Every structure is written in C-alpha cells, then in structure tokens.
C-alpha cells in the first residue's frame, strides 16, 4: 500500500483531499487525514465566534465523505520523520506513512512578551475562539476589551465585538503608524474613520512590554483591562517548527517548486507551514492544496509531475461588522458594502464546496 497521511484538515489539507478524490486513484493508495476536530473549521470566520455573532455550526463544514479516506481525530504529539510515523495523544497505535502532507496551520506568535501567552485570549483555534467568545460575552456592561495587533484579524475582531457589544469599551493597540499596513492607504483611512465613528479607541505606535491578568503595559503606561485578545502575529505550528527540515527566517519549512521538502521529497508542506513569497492566508493554502493534489496524483500513478504554475492570489477581503467591509479586488481598493457582500459570498462557497 502507498500510505498518504495528511496532517490537518484546514483549508490546505481539505483541498489536497478534494483534489485527489476528484480523480481516479490507484487501488493501492490509502489516504488518512488527522485532525483534532471531526469537521473542517473555517478559520477566517473565527472572529465572529470570538465576538459571539455566529454560532459554532456556522463556521463548521463536514469533511469529504468518501470510502477512500480514513479520518483520525486527535491531538498529534510527535511526527517521527526517521521512522515515518505519527503519534497521537492517548493512543498507542502509531500511524505510518509513505507520503505526508504537513498542513498544520499556525499558532499565535507572542514575540517573547512576558504574560502574553498566559493572560490573553486568542482566535487561532476553534476552542480558543470559543473561549474568547465566552470571555467577551460574560463581560458586564462597560467592560474593557483590549485587542493587541491591528492586522486583518485584529481589525475584524474589534469591529465584530463592537457590533455585538455596543456597551463595551474597546481599545485596539497598533504597532504601526496606521492600521492594516499591508493594505492600500484608501482602505487604511476608511477603517480608521470607521473606528472613530464607532467609538473604538486605536493606539498607534504601540509597544506592549508585558501583559498581566487584568491589564496591558504599553509604552510605560499600564491599562486596566477585563479581556485581552492577542492578534499580533502568527508562526507555524510548533510540530512543524520542530521537524528536522531547513527553515526560513520565519520558521517556515523551505520547499521546492513541487512543495516537497528537498531533503525528504515524500513530504509536502502547505499553507502557513510552508515558506512562500506570499503572506499566510486561507486563499494561499487552498491554491497550494490544489497544486499539491495534482502533483500527488502524478506521483501516486508513478508518473513525473508537472511543475505547477505560479500562484496568483485574487485579493483580500475583510469585514467591519455584518454590513461594512474592505478589500483589494481586481488590484483595486474597495470599501463599504460591496466587499462585505463579496466576503459573504466566499464564505457561502466554502460551505458548499
């Protein structure tokens, strides 16, 4: 048997599975998907779970149902590349592989800031986003929420909480001189104005020195706080960082043109764990997953794979509550209702793919 094991059922991992199942597979191929949850989690929508504006079921999608795929649910504790086997927490049976796809995603990067990991909430996993939603939802009127990081995740979390809880005091700590530094200035100005109009305080040039149970210390000033949410950067999952492969400066695994690890070409890496010229995103992971599926189809049929085409991203969309948004579409900046509708359309397609 040719044993293919996919670590992670997120955007990239599911695209690999779907791409393989769309074609005839050799009868000697066995596909195993390992994930902590028995469903795909739509991570780009976790901000709505954190704000309490969506139910859990709204951001869950069933995995592809096919007799050619075996699903194993649990927490991976070790990836042994020497013996080509996977260990799961609380399970004695090891899962061997001949081919492996690392699609483990990312986790929060706390940048070594004291207290950040211990005292902040997160939106990086379904469980953490759910916990954040409970923390925010249980606040008394006029409670204080601080969001550290004004990238896409921080913006969406802050805006969604404002829509969900107009009674709360919300503060957004931005390390730069403007929010969304990777976006067009038109979008930056629009989002800044939205926060002013909706009474969300934005602190620019922030430098968080440490986090305490009830506060954040920024530039020598400590703010009393009820809930602190961390959205100040990500890094590859620790299991991926611990693999004995060459990494780039961001601890992402370096891959060749076929998304293979050069020193172990039976190992493929997708999404947040793979070194890339593009910033991490669900869209990037999905395109990479589709290309890896094509490559694996050739390999599993004992054929030479074709070099994949250069990835071209279609743009980025963000929300400011349920009826406002922003985004880069067709290489142009858009703000208002149109990009918000477009984002809802992307979510609709993701649920029904």
Terminal-residue CA separation: 29 Å
Bin the helical content: 25-40%
Biggest sheet overview: 6 strands, mixed
**What low-confidence regions span 5 or more consecutive residues with pLDDT below 50?**
none
Number of E-state strands: 23
Mean pLDDT, all residues: 94
Q: Write down the Rg.
A: 21 Å
Count of helical stretches = 9
Strand residues, percent: 25-35%
- What overall geometry do the principal axes of the alpha carbons give? globular
Could you say which structural class the secondary elements and strand pairing correspond to? alpha/beta
The strands making up the biggest β-sheet line up spatially as: 5-2-1-9-20-19
Description of the structure:
- It contains nine helices and 23 strands.
- It starts with a strand and ends with a helix.
- Helix 1 runs parallel beside helix 8.
Short description:
The chain has nine helices and 23 strands. The chain has 353 residues and is an alpha/beta fold.
Topology:
Layout (H helix, E strand, L loop, with lengths): L1 E6 L3 H11 L7 E7 L4 E2 L4 H6 L8 E2 L7 E5 L2 E5 L4 E4 L6 E2 L2 E4 L3 E3 L7 H4 L6 H12 L6 E5 L3 H13 L4 E5 L11 H13 L2 E4 L4 E5 L2 E4 L2 E4 L2 E4 L3 E3 L1 H4 L18 E2 L2 E6 L12 H19 L14 E5 L5 E5 L2 E5 H16 L1
Parallel strand pairs: 1-2, 1-9, 2-5, 9-20, 11-12, 11-17, 12-13
Antiparallel strand pairs: 3-4, 6-7, 7-8, 10-18, 14-15, 15-16, 19-20, 21-22, 22-23
